[in-house]
Amino acid sequence: MRCSAKRKAKLVSAQCARAGKRAKYEVSLGETHPIPPDVQPAQAYENIQGPSLPKPPGQLKGQSDSSHDHEPIDWSDSDNESEGEREPVSPETIHRALTRTEAETARNSIDSAMRTHRRTGNGYTYIELDHVTFQRCFAMQACLNLFLEPDPISFIDASLQAAKVCKRGPTYAKSVRKWIRHIIKTGDLPENCWGWWNVSSLEDEDVSNEIKLHLQKVGKYARAQDVVDFLLDPAVRERLGLKKQISLRTAQRWLSRSGFRWRSEPKGQYFDGHEREDVVTHRQTKFIPLLKALERRRVLYGEDGKPLSERQLTLLEGEKQVILWFHDESIFYANDRRHVRWVYVGEHAIPFKKGEGRSIMIADFMCAEFGWLRGENGAMARVDLSPGKSRDGYFTSELVIKQLRDAIKLAKEKYPAYEHVFVYDNAPSHTKRPAGAISARGMPKGPSQKFTFASTDAQGRKTSVRMEDGRFADGTPQSFYYPENHPRYPGWFKGMAEILRERGLGHIAEKRVECQDKCKDGVTDCCCRRALSCQPDFKARDSSLEEVARELGSLVIFLPKYHCELNPIEQCWGFAKKLYREKPACTKESVVKKYAIECVEAVPVETMRKYAARSQRFLDAYASGMSGSAAIKWATKEHRHHRETPSHIPFNEIAPALINNA
Fold first, then answer.
1. Residue 598: its pLDDT value, please?
2. Cα(287)–Cα(624) distance, rounded to whole angstroms?
3. What pLDDT score does 74 carry?
4. How far apart are alpha carbons 45 and 67 in whole angstroms?
């Protein structure tokens, strides 16, 4: 029996829709297969037997040619068609007998499609199949089990018994045989076309891609109505082969199926000033070259917290392994608690605490190798205080310097076999220069008798100091004050104009003190203050932290501004605050301090190493020339499952000049 042409067209359309293709198919009612002259049409039917029936291709000698061992391809799924409507078929469509080897292979394929071995332990994990596919697999398994029994039974009889078990008839048995032969021929389960008769035109791959391209042109605030308006254009519908317009609800469903969600836009890293010219210059010309030069003397870690075997430690004679100690501060607030939880539907609103509550500031050092900086017998360089004018005050530059002295002493006593480098962010309290340090900020243009700086002496008494001397281009010192025996300005400050004249920049000395608006980028002689600020001795002046570190035989490095992603301790604070927010609510300052310290100490060393690996990926991205936004996509999404820089950016190609000079 054959199915009608309309039925054939529906089957073809359903299969094409599932593959994401649309095309026009024409099925002729009078189409027939060519029949060789030596085969009579009546002999092509499955139920007709006779000696004149030719052997199908590939049939082995001795195999039965009865109707129980071979049959033609049949599209029919019902017995309602009359015998006069049947189409004759060619000998190529007549199947040979099924062998036991083929039957066993098909049974194993069906079994593998229905269940898989568990990864751990014994037993199987059954795959979720739709009801129709599962029922078909069950019928095929039953048929093959009966066919492979020790007692001989024909393939057709086995299919009839399997159909009977499923409470179906001969037509279903014929379908079972067809599905089994399909598995043997292609290795795939027969497709279930149920539910695919009416497929949305938007499921077409070409239509879907066109809509997505249009939404990209609209921008980030595209709406479902934009999809409707796009398909309202007759020219667009004609090009895509669409006959009807779509509704707003259809567009919303398509957006949902295509991966779009109506929700708040996810927030990323702040980029205010991140790619500013001076910040990028400091990052690319100072920070990255220095870190890359130290890489061969450092142990680098991967995302699993284990050292990278691809980046071995390379020490020259007399060198020590370098340990980077990252510094930062963080504040824990009493009212900083979780706000997202399971809320009972009948729960009423309760009064909310206003403000952030009591606070505790913690400043500490961490490294990937050892975690927090801790010494013998619980010694530590951590500073915790209650910030506020009427409380413990603030973390001033003097306290920062004192903490650095303690940290260097502690690190050298606990880890004497290493060279210690301390990394700070670019906060003003960290980069502050000593009182009287050379600086063009606040300088008057003309002579001044009272241009000095407030300071304290060794006994803590307030005093005033002069600005230190500058240096000419040849390295000789330049005093910024007139001598005490000067006839007009004895001991006075010379002023910017005179300092510029002594440096051979008299043409700039006649310009204004400073620009009314912000100085233009790249201009160094627009005003007196800008000209002096760009002088080498003014720019190269070290901060107090750098001076103290050099004095104690160590080194301080400053991160580029706005680059918190390069400091792994920032993520340690996030880990600690997650634990802190799960603590019970409290208002006492002592309890807040206790909880904060407990949560900080709970950060595992393995987790710190993973955070250090993430910061290292950002460093590699910037070294390869990526900007901030590109580095974030590269380091946090595209390659976050790799333990090292991907193969398309080899290590020896990341800032090669810096590595070769290391």
1. 95
2. 14
3. 43
4. 9
- Domain ranges across the chain: 100-186, 201-257, 282-343+360-426+559-660, 453-539
- Residue ranges of alpha helices (H) inside 415-483 are 428-431
| Residue of 69 and 571 predicted with greater confidence | 571
User: Cβ of 65: how many Cβ atoms within 10 Å?
Assistant: 18
Exposure string for 486-495, b = 16+ CB within 10 A, e = fewer: eeebeebbbb
- Over residues 224-266, the pLDDT tens digits come to 999 999 999 999 999 988 888 899 999 999 999 888 888 877 6
Residue 15: the pLDDT is 61
Task: Say what the pLDDT of residue 65 is.
Answer: 39
Distance CA 313, CA 295 (A): 8
Instruction: Supply the pTM of this predicted model.
Output: 0.61
Number of H helices, E strands in the chain: 23, 12
State the greatest distance between any 2 C-alpha atoms of the chain, in Å, as a whole number: 138
CA distance 373 to 325: 8
User: What does the pLDDT read at residue 25?
Assistant: 36
User: pLDDT band at residue 49, thresholds of 50, 70 and 90?
Assistant: very low
Residue-wise pLDDT for 355-381, tens only, equals 888 899 999 999 999 999 998 888 999
Is the confidence at residue 186, as pLDDT, over 80?
yes
Q: Residue 545's CB: how many other CB atoms inside 10 A?
A: 23
Angle made by CA atoms 156, 157, 161, in degrees to the nearest 5: 115
- pLDDT number for residue 349: 79
- Average pLDDT score, the chain: 80
Backbone angles phi, psi at 224, to 5 degrees: -65, -30
Angle value at C-alpha 537, between 533 and 540, nearest 5 degrees: 90
CA distances from 7 to 12, 316, 579 (A): 9, 80, 63
Measured CA distances, 22 to 200, 207, 208, 617 (Å): 11, 10, 12, 45
Q: What percent of the chain has pLDDT over 90?
A: 40
480 touches 472 (CB < 8 A)? no
Closest CA to 622 of 273, 272, 275: 275
Asked whether the beta carbons of 369 and 299 are under 8 A apart, the reply is yes
Helices 569-581 and 589-601 meet at what angle, rounded to 10? Answer: 130
CA gap 414, 376 in Å, rounded: 7
List Cα–Cα distances, 468 to 452, 454, 473, in angstroms.
10, 14, 16
Label each residue of 43-56 as H, E or C: HHCCCCCCCCCCCC
Distance CA 642, CA 266 (A): 24
Tell me the per-residue pLDDT of 311-356, one tens digit each, with 9 for 90 and over.
888 899 989 999 999 999 999 999 888 877 788 788 887 777 778 8
DSSP H/E element including 321: strand 321-333
Classify domain 282-343+360-426+559-660 at the CATH class level.
alpha beta
Nearest C-alpha neighbor of 310 from the set 296, 294, 328, 290 = 296
Residue of 308, 280, 282 whose CA lies nearest to 295: 308
Q: Is the distance from CB of 379 to CB of 410 less than 8 angstroms? A: yes
Closest CA to 366 of 605, 544, 555: 605
